[in-house]
Amino acid sequence: MRRTPLSKKGKGESATLKRKIQDKLRELVIKRDGNCILWKARHCNDPVLQADHLITRANSATYADSRLVVCLCRSCHGWKHWHKEQYDDLVKTTVLPKKIVKLWNDCERDSWKPRRTGSYDWRVALAVLEQEIKQLD
User: Fold this and answer.
1) What does the alpha-carbon distance between residue 73 and residue 29 come to, in Å, rounded to a whole number?
2) 3-state class (DSSP) for residue 72
3) pLDDT tens per residue, range 16-66
4) b/e per residue, 58-68, with b = 16+ CB within 10 A?
5) Which of 2, 107, 119, 126 has the smallest C-beta neighbourhood within 10 Å, fewest atoms?
6) What is the DSSP string of 7-65?
7) Nearest to residue 33, comparing CAs of 49, 54, 55?
8) For position 116, what pLDDT does the model report?
């Protein structure tokens, strides 16, 4: 029987790289979007901004794709989890450009296909995100 508690965070290279990717995604979407993408529709004013994945982070194929991550405030992010269908409809019809909505739909349709991702892939994704951030500056 295990005598020490399980670690809350992974300590492997992939886990560390995925945390760095999350940090870079948050930085990127805040710079790119500037504010919560729903502030006009929901009249929110929460100053805490977060990176929200349009497709679950469990899908490694789209995990680091900044086109499928948007900036939401904390209150809208919480609202999304209780009203997922309303959120998806609102974002798809009024907020996102048609090409991103098409990408979102295509990726959701293909999300059941397994994709093996290793630390090399995460290092490449991290480098791509760092380049995207530099281009925004």
Assistant:
1) 12
2) strand
3) 999 999 999 999 999 999 999 999 888 888 899 999 999 988 888 889 999
4) ebbbbbbbbeb
5) 2
6) PSS--SHHHHHHHHHHHHHHHHHHHHH-S-TTHHHH------EEEEESS-TT-TTTTT-
7) 49
8) 81
* Better pLDDT: 116 or 132: 132
Q: What is the gyration radius of the CA atoms in the chain, in angstroms?
A: 16
The CA-atom distances, in angstroms, between 65 and each of 43, 52, 55, 68, 102 are 27, 12, 10, 6, 14
Q: Which tokens in the block code for residue 12?
A: 């492997």
C-alpha 129/C-alpha 68 separation (Å) is: 13
